[in-house]
Design brief:
By secondary structure, this protein is of the alpha/beta class. The protein has ten helices and eleven strands. The strands form two sheets. It has a five-stranded mixed barrel. The longest helix has 16 residues.
Length: 249
């Protein structure tokens, strides 16, 4: 039996791109593309944790599994926490991947990579970063930077010391662009979801700082690219073009 479950939070109430999970890409809703990528990773069962019946119906129509959660939940983490309790009251799953529902072109292998810090470092939470030497990334508040202490013996792995929207760390060298995909031990997810928002979390508007302020450990695995997140109409057109290219190969 798999000990890992992949949960994909999804809701229709997007400010910048309304009905985002159901928008068409190559004849299928975006959430179906995300679900299919997660299935291809073959790390465990995949469920869409959705806020509305329309998303559940779209996923199930294409052969997937979905669970309804309260529409009023404030974050994707809260949504997967509630979904996990509903699909697994027997506590069969020890590890949980939170795979964002707006990454329709993400490579399935990154879901395998995000599990590595849990196994290698014994951390509470794991996430991904990609190296960037682009000065626009360094200066942009829209790019979250991870400050990471990497392991000399395993340079692709490290422990996160901080996350920020500011340019960090200072000095010569790359910045590490944080990718908002997480793996949790089940105990860590349950602890994290019950913590109140922390002062640094509110200040930086970064949920993962709640875990660090509470003394939880976050492990990091490097990957070579940042997957396209669909937040705007322009992003959607780019995703459509990328998937059309894949189908033409």
């Amino acid at each position: 039996m798999h000990e890992t479950v992949v949960l994909i939070p999804a809701r229709l109430a997007s400010r910048r791109l309304p009905n985002k999970p159901l928008l068409d890409i190559a004849g299928e809703p975006m959430i179906v593309h995300v679900w299919r990528r997660a299935v291809e990773a073959a790390v465990g069962p995949v469920w869409v944790a959705c806020a509305e019946h329309h998303i559940r119906e779209a996923v199930e129509r294409h052969g997937g599994r979905a669970v309804l959660t309260e529409p009023s939940l404030p974050s994707g983490t809260d949504r997967i926490f509630q979904a996990l309790a509903r699909i697994d009251p027997e506590r069969r799953y020890r590890r949980v991947i939170n795979f964002q529902g707006d990454l329709p072109t993400a490579e399935p292998r990154i879901l395998r990579h995000v599990l590595e810090p849990l196994d290698a470092l014994g951390c509470d939470i794991a996430t991904l970063v990609a190296e960037s030497a682009d000065p626009r990334d360094r200066d942009s508040p829209h790019v979250v930077k991870a400050v990471v202490s990497f392991l000399p013996q395993r340079p692709e792995l490290g422990r996160a010391l901080y996350f920020t929207r500011a340019p960090a760390p200072t000095g010569l060298g790359p910045v590490w662009h944080h990718i908002g995909i997480y793996a949790y031990t089940r105990d860590a997810l349950e602890r994290f979801a019950r913590l109140p928002p922390s002062p640094l979390e509110r200040r930086e508007r970064l949920e993962q700082l709640r875990a660090l302020e509470a003394g939880m450990t976050i492990g990091v695995r490097t990957v070579d690219t940042v997957p396209l997140g669909v937040d705007t109409a322009e992003d959607l057109e780019q995703a459509r073009a990328l998937i059309a290219e894949e189908k033409d190969r």
